[in-house]
């Protein structure tokens, strides 16, 4: 199978190549046929759109938007929409593929997609963001649909943007279609438990891995990069289970307190301070990158891609990395982490709690019924725990890292489904 040589990794890795090099190793381990390999590696649909928006000063600015559907083999495609200046086609392609693998790892009936707009929401008014979100939805109206492609929040978006997307889509259909997006406000059919779902899943993945690595949560220290939706919920929930969170960070910098940060206080500070930790006094401010190299048991990157690279992986002291963010570890860093016996619970497993509860939201919308928070949490915890155990067993069986094991589980499922559907 000559085609499955690991993808050449250039000095500066791009996220799609990083994804492909793991995919290739797992495909090789599974002995995947050439035909299926070619189907699974190629995104099903890639759309780039220009979005003219009237700004508050009356000028018109044109933004670039993307939606990539990587696969719809397991079902309608699913994945968030990111508003960030770093958004580009390769990033969205990688994020879409990760969604395919993620849904397969936790065994939910979705394919993978991702979208994004290159913009800086922090510098835009609410009105400008609303017009941009509605234009994006309108321009991609043929792509979206509760049985076709179902967006959700990602970096820079949340329930507010999902409400606008749902409203814009519903108008085009002449009726309310709340199952077209997930992560909505509760009053519009959002699910109890969705806001905290990704952080909660990270907590379950972290505790499951700590058990295997024989790290006692009550003696463990943890550092968390990113204090947005995922990072702050992971911090809060781990802290409630005895883990001492000694460092947190956001775009303003990192904050360290070896005695443990009061997470509820930090969240309250951020919420009262325009969503920023700038000026937080409950910890000492340290340079952002130093957080990654602290002497902790568990490191949770929960901000963005490619923060753990071949250049810094050797400096990581944590025994366990639990990937709240998508793609925080580059492919070249994997080998260094393995050499140093640092385990990484990969993104496509660790942060799958979000899409799992998005699936529950979609199910509830279609049933026209609301589940209790207890039911949502119980079911998502069970899925996360079962999925972790499955990936762990596969890692033992194939003698591979948890990351490659997760890709093996995912690729096996998607390729088998493709065969059953008569794809070839
Ligand atoms: N929200 C969700 O349900 C899910 C999110 N993810 C992933 O988790 C990551 C974070 O997403 P969210 O928490 O939703 O985004 P968010 O927009 O709520 O928060 C992002 C956080 O990262 C911080 N950040 C940005 N650049 C940083 C830097 N250079 N250094 C340190 N911190 C920095 C921001 O200040 C903010 O605190 C992304 O990779 C996203 O794709 C994955 C699965 C689901
Ligand atoms: O909740 C969802 O549907 C997708 C969340 C997402 O974009 C992700 O898991 O990266």
Automatic annotation (TrEMBL):
Ranges where the Glutamate/phenylalanine/leucine/valine/L-tryptophan dehydrogenase C-terminal domain occurs: 191-422
Family recorded in the similarity comment: Belongs to the Glu/Leu/Phe/Val dehydrogenases family.
Entry superkingdom: Bacteria
Matching PROSITE patterns: GLFV_DEHYDROGENASE (PS00074)
Protein name, as recorded: Glutamate dehydrogenase
SMART domains with a match to the protein in the record: ELFV_dehydrog
Organism: Reichenbachiella agarivorans
Key words, A-Z: Oxidoreductase
Pfam families membership: ELFV_dehydrog, ELFV_dehydrog_N
Entry keyword annotation includes Oxidoreductase: yes
